[in-house]
Amino acid sequence: MSEVASINSSTRGLVLLLAAALLTPLIVAATLTPDPRGLGTHQQLGLPVCTWPAALGIPCPSCGMTTAFAYAARADLSRAFVTQPMGALLAIAAAIGCVVSLGVSLTGYQFQRLFDPILNKWCLSAAVLLFFVAWFWKFSCMRGWT
Asked: Which residue among 21, 37, 86, 93 is buried most deeply as judged by most CB within 10 Å?
């Protein structure tokens, strides 16, 4: 018997749904035109103007993420990172997650064993820290500090 355990067909179907869920925002982002201001791209989806910049003069924590996704979906990663670093990282993570999920769905191989060493409390702490660093970056960009 192989050392690598395989997952059953119903779990493979759920993982295929996960792949589709991860791919969906990238497909939607690819249909959007990134706003050159670095924010406001979400309005193309019929969403309202973000009130934080208008009312408070500062970006909200997710300010620019839709624009970063739109750039990342076009493989313009440099603009995606400059626009919103966390948005760029999330878009890349969604793409990687989609590919890995598709691989699991097709092969049944449990790829999480490859990620177990890095997906721990330190990874979560780093993600939270990066979120705040990206928010500060966006804030500094809007203030003209960069």
From this structure: 86
